[in-house]
Specification:
Strand content: 5-15%
Structural class: alpha/beta
Distance between the termini: 50 Å
Order of helices and strands: HEHHHEHEHEEEHEHEHHEHEHHHHEHEEH
Number of strands: 13
């Protein structure tokens, strides 16, 4: 009798189970619109040209070795990452009240931030502090904060299914009613899974309430540059909140905008009230990292750091990111046009109004099931699709499949 006999079988992670089902499907025509990774128009992974160039530079750099990095990570990576999020002219950076923690992807940045907040936010051991995540949100948000020890994780209004857009009134009402000092996880841009972001004017309304009611801002920034093709535009919300005097965290991921999915390159940017507060915060985060992964890996961080710190490489990277963003925007335009051309019932304006990698199609679970079983088009049960999975070769088939699902399945 094993001592582990009573361990229950955990359910599979939905998005990776979807990809496994796709691989096992032997149908001649099949499409995977599930996992969030960029694909070319040939539906192949793309190693960014600038990444290939920097990898060669690293190989040829005889000064590099495999010694441990500092616990908080590669210093030049951390500072460059924070500068990308906050801007070259950030007053907070100039005031020496911004610091970074290199992390294992965006998930690692979220986890280190969550663990710190549970231990030290507004007093010690804040397990009862409410943490608000959008409804819907990326599934890891709930799990990361729960595993960090928070007991009260609540949804806030975000998606209006009827109008297929932002439920601003519901969101603002939730901000007004949340207990003071509650923690809010906000998507900086390209909201996952809906692809629906507040406008600058709407962000200002959100900021005003959060500032007045002493709510803590934890941005998740997984798609900077990838959403619109413009790094500054995609960081607008973060920079506005910083300009309004917020102390806040930003979990940054370089998986999407560098295509470094398997390198797990992330950064937790900390904006503190002053340099003295920052030093104490980072000292505690160092202790958390020490017992979590001890020291971060170097390869991905070196790639990002060399790129961000060299003007020539930085400009080349911005061009690579724009290439990816523009292909996604093109697929949005074409899918909307093809659905309208087919006379598919309903409005499809939301496809081009949304931004980033994902689109919340509005398909219901039965229609999704039809798409998978009858059309071999794999997408999440929520109706979320990865726009990168659409190509000029399969878009007609996908549009017709959506049309059939909407017209045949209620």
């Amino acid at each position: 009798m094993s001592i582990f006999s009573d361990v229950p079988q955990a359910p599979p992670v939905a998005v990776f189970k979807l990809s496994a089902d796709f691989r096992e499907d032997s149908h001649a025509v099949k499409v995977n619109l599930g996992v969030g990774a960029y694909r070319t128009d040939d539906c192949q992974p793309w190693v960014l040209p600038v990444v290939k160039k920097v990898e060669r530079l690293i190989v040829e750099d005889g000064s590099l070795n495999h010694e441990y990095l500092p616990i908080l990570g590669l210093p030049e990576f951390r500072s460059a990452s924070s500068k990308v999020a906050l801007g070259d002219d950030s007053a907070a950076i100039k005031d020496n009240r911004v610091g970074g923690v290199q992390a294992l992807g965006g998930t690692g940045a979220l986890r280190i931030g969550a663990e710190f907040l549970r231990r030290w936010y507004n007093g010690v051991n804040n397990t009862a502090t409410p943490v608000y995540v959008s409804a819907p949100t990326w599934e890891n948000h709930n799990s990361v904060f729960a595993d960090a020890g928070f007991k009260d994780i609540r949804p806030y209004h975000y998606w209006d299914a009827a109008k297929r857009g932002l439920d601003l009134a519901g969101l603002l009402d939730d901000l007004e009613k949340a207990p003071e000092h509650s923690i809010f996880v906000l998507h900086a841009c390209a909201h996952n899974p809906t692809g629906t972001d507040p406008t600058p004017e709407e962000w200002k309304k959100i900021s005003e309430i959060m500032k007045r009611r002493n709510l803590f801002v934890f941005f998740d920034s997984a798609y900077q540059g990838f959403a619109s093709g413009d790094l500054d535009k995609d960081a607008w919300a973060i920079r506005y909140f910083v300009s309004e005097g917020f102390e806040l965290f930003v979990a940054q991921s370089f998986s999407k905008n560098f295509g470094l999915y398997n390198e797990r390159v992330g950064n937790l940017t900390v904006v503190a009230q002053d340099s003295e507060n920052l030093a104490r915060i980072l000292s505690q985060m160092e202790k958390i990292v020490r017992t979590t992964w001890s020291n971060p890996p170097s390869q991905g961080a070196r790639i990002v750091s060399k790129t961000l710190n060299c003007p020539e490489l930085f400009n080349e990277w911005k061009g690579n990111v724009k290439t990816m963003a523009e292909r996604v925007l093109l697929m949005r335009d074409q899918l909307k046009a093809k659905l309208q051309g087919l006379g598919t019932p309903g409005t499809w304006d939301h496809i081009t109004q949304q931004i980033g990698m994902f689109s919340f199609t509005g398909l219901n679970p039965k229609q999704v099931e039809y798409m998978i079983k009858e059309k071999h088009v794999y997408l999440m049960a929520s109706g979320r699709i990865n726009m990168c999975g659409l190509t000029t070769k399969n878009i007609d088939y996908i549009a017709q499949s959506i049309h059939d699902a909407v017209t045949k399945v209620q």
